[in-house]
Amino acid sequence: MKTLVLKNVTDEDLVFKIVETNNAALFAELYDRFSKVVFNKCYGFSKSREEAEDLTHDVFIRLFVKLRTFKGNSKFSTWLYSFTYNFCVNYVQRNAYKKKEKITVVTDQIKDENVFDEIDDVTLFELKSDKLAKVLTLIEPAEKMILLMKYQDDMSIKEIMEALQVGESAVKMRVKRAKAKVVKIYDEL
Fold it and tell me: Would you give the DSSP letter of residue 104?
């Protein structure tokens, strides 16, 4: 019966109750609600299912410690997505640095801003998935993150703004630049 009561509690109220009581059973409920979503995000940044499972575990350990930083200014799910992305981006950057396998792609300065407008979603979706997967390993984690937020998670510009805490024009420009970079690298492979 207690489980039924928890199902009616909002994510935000559940988080505040966890912070207040430090109750592991309540945190388990939060885990049950979000573990699949977090796993899917981690899987997008990892090389294997096992690595994604480890990342998911690490995210939730870190989340338990950082949960009290959630202030309720946005939906918890938006905050958690941002938390997970930041964790994964940091993980990828740490691994790349440790392994000294970081690949730097030098792009030419694009003088004509209109070039970004030519890269529409149809062009991006027409890229072959195996080649696209390789390209996604070659771009910066932050660029990969924003593309995954937009296209894998189907987040709106407003949701991305909230998650990244940047303005609308910054989100739009980052998406355009990331798309342009993906298409450019794709064409060079």
Answer: P
